[in-house]
């Protein structure tokens, strides 16, 4: 693709014909600067970690802003290194973040309780009651489940709540002064009506009546962000917002912002999976699949969330709390071992060597069994997790079998949810994947194809992932030109783009099926570990 209306990247940056996407993920805050046609001009990231605060997984708001400032500063420096010019403005800007969770604010904008992330599974009673009330699956992670659980637990802060939002919505609010949210992220706060593309009014009323019986006169519609669709303007960067991102004062105010979105929405955009019968799988700290539906599902399934694309189309989301983190921990151990032998190596090299070893293994992992549960896993009914490796005396413990088992473990809960969609008759023409685990070509992609029983596509842009998808949504704000999002992606961004497609290998499919049988049969072992081994040793 040629750069848009200018001859060099330096001209594009200097003239502000760019879009900046920022995504606050579970382990990294990432930024990606693109031309308005999607070409990457600069990128960088900042590592951060969640904390366990008062029994809840959380990030401090100070860490949010420290990380954002460092990430933006690094991106600006990367642009200057690559192109000799420091961006002082952008054509458009967008913020995305991990979906769901609970950020509750009082009337003066003060945070009432520490941020409760998607990772918390303390909302079981609330989610069950709301699912029964709405006739709509209400996952543990959703913001309204967190609010209602606080009501059930009689938390004192509930009476003072004046606004609740997601992490992306919070950052956008501080940057622009506007309390808005993209429909995809909003659909993980409260159910969206698929015709109006707004919060479901009937369910809003049901919730208000429910909490009124407990003596609380909440009007939940007044607490939620305004819902916007991709392509709609969501405010401009204020001088105060510019100062938050760049205390040095080089960044100019006035940049238009697109609606803030969740990481699920940016994953759909980054993999060109926003049309019916398409889908994508995102693998990181968590793992989830997003399948764009032709019609609503016939039944409510607790394993499947109903959310939307960034333009409000219905999506079946299979979300698993535990993704590639346990495999990453093992890669760290093997890296330490290599260093102890006098051969220190880059973590990416260690990860790549391990994944390639998985191809030199038995299709079922040699009889090994693993659970990657660092936290609870709702799909299999676990409120907490304990990572485990289990084997019988006659299993074959080799490096390849061990790594294949760890990868299978990362995909197993997802596979259980995907089988529900298959039983519903959901058809998938194209399933794309993205995440760091796919940087090693042909390994995780092949094993995922076996787990879901469908071809898996990796776009050459897959490693850029969420922040690139958010930058595309920001560019779409400027470049839509009357085109719908799908047409924009097809004709401007992905036209002629290279892809690698892997079909399921029959031996791998049979091997994964055997592993999944052990996985399901062995779940009592995981439950016993949770009951027997305390969370703090």
From TrEMBL:
Give the Carbohydrate kinase FGGY C-terminal domain ranges.
280-476
Its signal peptide is none
The keyword Nucleotide-binding appears for this protein:
no
**Nucleotide-binding: present as a keyword of the record?**
no
What family is this? Belongs to the FGGY kinase family.
Give the protein's recorded name.
FGGY-family carbohydrate kinase
Q: Which SUPFAM superfamilies match?
A: Actin-like ATPase domain
Question: Which CDD domains would you find in this protein's record?
Answer: ASKHA_NBD_FGGY_BaXK-like (cd07809)
User: Which Pfam families has this protein been placed in?
Assistant: FGGY_C (PF02782), FGGY_N (PF00370)
**UniProt cross-references to Gene3D superfamilies, sorted A to Z:** 3.30.420.40
Keywords per UniProt:
Carbohydrate metabolism, Kinase, Transferase, Xylose metabolism
List each copy of the Carbohydrate kinase FGGY N-terminal domain by range. Answer: 19-245
Organism this protein belongs to: Ornithinimicrobium cryptoxanthini
What molecular functions are annotated in GO for this chain? kinase activity
